[in-house]
């Protein structure tokens, strides 16, 4: 196996285990914290508020992430970030309101480090021909976390209308162990360099890199953020942040709060996460296999497909779940009798559509900004996380129907912006190829004239 592709696989395993713990926790956090509050009235922590703090902190800290990575390197940043994820999971074994919110701030800062480091490390192990494949493979492995963790929760929550202390501790303990395994994989990551400049006598790759100071990295991120293409892509990033917060924290909880789903409504929270994960894994694997072809055909057809898939899922959610479902247990129904199979189908569509967007975002950032990948991925996570935080703040107050309308509008803007950047990049590539052909033609003509003169 190619050394760089092996690095991508190790990266995928590390994130798969770390995020099996975190994404499962995010999916069940609102439901679990409500159960803790019922057992202990002194505990007033709220799942939506915790997630909002996480993503707000992540957004702010992303501006510092490029500077931090110049000091720690991408591997060090990911290990440090992964440690904060472990701390966050452990705090659920000792539920305290203040500890929940402190851990939320810490994991937000750690998330900025781990995600910016990941984007930089993935780019260092890719080139123009492999970035789409590597992005798809990494995304598929990452989203396996949605499948395994939530399948475990589905089994443990079976037949329960209230998540008791013993069940909670078993789940939290298992997720803690899984997170430790992920950290070990991140520690096994090997150094990676950018493009080689020469080979030594043994054929080993030797690189020469210009060191960048933390201040220069920060200034570079600000400059990149103000470019036209990055501002347009920010609309796409904003949409992915809002839909991330919706499917990871709002939608599954809304299913569990819809009592008309039946006596196993709480169990469906975990099952929803499983189907979201299946959609994510299928999308990531598919686009990983077709990576070389998407590079030729363009990324826009995949994003447009994801757009229509999400619109379909928003409509089906609107008619299936009551509009007050995000707020807590409700007996209300929507336009049809709430259907568990339809809810799971929508979960799958949300996951598959999300894979369409995110794999192509990784591809365009790694391909178009390969020389400045640290800043590019930091700006992606800054914008995405800021939007996710805003969504979690209004999720506890906005009706489900309002949230779906917002999602539909942002999906339209984000898709249009992505296509505009992709088409412009393709036009520049064609123009550059044409100029190259003209240059070669001129060179050949001059050579022919010189021979004729001689």
Automatic annotation (TrEMBL):
Q: Which InterPro entries match?
A: Ion_channel_UNC-93 (IPR010291), MFS_trans_sf (IPR036259), UNC-93-like_regulator (IPR051617)
The portions of this protein that span the membrane are 47-65, 77-94, 100-124, 136-157, 169-189, 231-251, 271-290, 302-322, 401-421
Q: Which family does it belong to?
A: Belongs to the unc-93 family.
Q: What superkingdom heads the lineage?
A: Eukaryota
Q: Which UniProt keywords apply?
A: Glycoprotein, Membrane, Transmembrane, Transmembrane helix
Q: How does it sit in the membrane?
A: Multi-pass membrane protein
Subcellular localization is given as:
Membrane
Could you tell me which Pfam families the record lists for this protein?
UNC-93
Q: Which GO CC terms are listed, alphabetically?
A: membrane
This protein is called what? UNC93-like protein MFSD11
């Amino acid at each position: 196996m190619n050394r760089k592709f092996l690095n991508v696989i190790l990266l995928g395993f590390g994130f798969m285990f770390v995020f099996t713990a975190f994404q499962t926790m995010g999916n069940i956090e609102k439901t679990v914290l409500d159960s803790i509050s019922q057992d202990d009235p002194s505990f007033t922590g709220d799942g939506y508020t915790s997630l909002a703090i996480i993503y707000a902190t992540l957004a702010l800290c992303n501006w510092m992430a490029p500077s931090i990575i110049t000091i720690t390197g991408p591997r060090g940043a990911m290990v440090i970030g992964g440690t904060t994820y472990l701390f966050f999971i452990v705090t659920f074994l000792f539920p305290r309101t203040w500890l929940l919110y402190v851990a939320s701030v810490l994991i937000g800062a750690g998330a900025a480090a781990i995600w910016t480091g990941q984007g930089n490390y993935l780019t260092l192990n890719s080139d123009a021909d492999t970035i789409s494949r590597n992005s798809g493979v990494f995304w598929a492995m990452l989203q396996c976390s949605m499948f395994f963790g939530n399948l475990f929760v589905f089994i443990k929550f079976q037949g329960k209308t209230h998540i008791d202390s013993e069940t909670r501790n078993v789940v939290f303990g298992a997720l803690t162990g899984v997170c430790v395994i992920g950290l070990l994989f991140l520690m096994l990551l090997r150094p990676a360099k950018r493009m080689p400049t020469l080979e030594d006598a043994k054929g080993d790759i030797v690189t020469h890199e210009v060191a960048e100071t933390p201040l220069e990295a920060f200034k570079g991120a600000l400059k990149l953020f103000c470019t036209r293409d990055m501002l347009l892509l920010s609309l796409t990033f904003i949409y992915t942040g809002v839909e991330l917060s919706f499917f990871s924290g709002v939608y599954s909880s809304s299913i569990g709060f819809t009592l008309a789903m039946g006596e196993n409504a709480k169990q469906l929270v975990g099952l929803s996460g499983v189907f979201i994960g299946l959609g994510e894994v299928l999308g990531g694997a598919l686009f990983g296999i077709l990576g070389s072809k998407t590079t030729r055909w363009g990324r826009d057809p995949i994003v447009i497909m994801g757009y229509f898939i999400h619109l379909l899922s928003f409509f089906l959610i609107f008619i299936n779940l009551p509009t007050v479902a995000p707020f807590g247990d409700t007996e209300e129904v929507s336009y049809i009798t709430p259907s568990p199979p339809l809810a799971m189908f929508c979960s799958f569509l949300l996951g598959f559509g999300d894979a369409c967007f995110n794999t192509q975002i990784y591809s365009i950032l790694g391909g178009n900004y390969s020389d400045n990948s640290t800043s590019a991925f930091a700006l992606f996570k800054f914008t995405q996380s800021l939007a996710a935080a805003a969504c979690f703040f209004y999720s506890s107050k906005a009706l489900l129907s309002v949230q779906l309308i917002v999602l539909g509008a942002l999906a339209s803007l984000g898709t249009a912006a992505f296509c505009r950047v992709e088409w412009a990049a393709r036009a520049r590539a064609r123009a550059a190829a044409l100029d190259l052909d003209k240059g070669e033609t001129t060179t050949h003509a001059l050579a022919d004239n010189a021979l004729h003169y001689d």
